[in-house]
Amino acid sequence: MNQEMSEEEKIAYVFKVVVIGDSAVGKTQLLSRFAKNEFCLDSKSTIGVEFQTRTVSISSKLVKAQIWDTAGQERYRAVTSAYYRGALGAMLVYDVTKRQSFDHVARWVDELRAHADASIVIMLIGNKADLLDSRAVPAEDAVEFAETENLFFFETSALSGENVEPAFLKLLQEIYDVVSKKALDSSNLVKPNGGLLSGLKIEAAQSEVSEMKNLSTCSC
Ligand SMILES: Nc1nc2c(ncn2[C@@H]2O[C@H](COP(=O)(O)OP(=O)(O)OP(=O)(O)O)[C@@H](O)[C@H]2O)c(=O)[nH]1
Ligand SMILES: [Mg+2]
């Protein structure tokens, strides 16, 4: 007897992606635009860590993006290693109207290089591109930095939604290309319900969230 596969069973991969960057650049709003197509103008600073998921089709395979979000503020930085563990991709966000948030991007790249897997795919995002009159970072500066550091780059607006989908999909496609070239023994890959690939599972991720919540409590 043929049984229909559930959506969960059809998922070929779960990719963990982290969103990083200074406080108030729009990390949480970018994520909620991509995961739920929602935007909130008076969103509060994120406390601790959270993740949201969205399943998309990449190269004809169902891929669940598990996207983690945390505060940009220094005082929560004790979460660092647990936050980056198993991440295959990073969205490194700055605010095109805040020069300082772009000047800090190099530090965030250093942090990724120090704590994340060497093959992590990094997407540089200049967010709030809708604020045309208050731009403080020319796109050319970011293009140059991205080329030097080997990052992908998009300007987005979480408010209007412009480029949010293309940026996330490009990141997921690049991760897909990286992992399909890698040997199947990578511990960062998930084949739900058994199979050849094993590693981080959603349930495990939930417990890591609690682990990080404890960490962030300790660090205050
Ligand atoms: N105009 C405009 N405002 C935005 C955009 N994205 C976010 N915002 C606003 O910027 C503020 C900060 O957004 P958040 O998403 O909370 O910023 P965050 O990077 O998550 O900040 P932390 O959690 O403190 O690290 C909020 O008032 C958002 O409404 C955008 O694309 N355009
Ligand atoms: Mg936030």
Automatic annotation (TrEMBL):
Cross-referenced PROSITE patterns: RAB, RAS, RHO
InterPro entries: P-loop_NTPase, Rab_GTPases_membrane_traffic, Small_GTP-bd, Small_GTPase
Source organism superkingdom: Eukaryota
GO molecular function annotations of the record: GTP binding; GTPase activity
Pfam families in the cross-refs: Ras
Gene3D superfamilies xref list: P-loop containing nucleotide triphosphate hydrolases
SMART domains, A to Z: RAB, RAN, RAS, RHO
Family: Belongs to the small GTPase superfamily. Rab family.
Protein name: Ras-related protein Rab-11A
Organism (species): Salvia splendens (Scarlet sage)
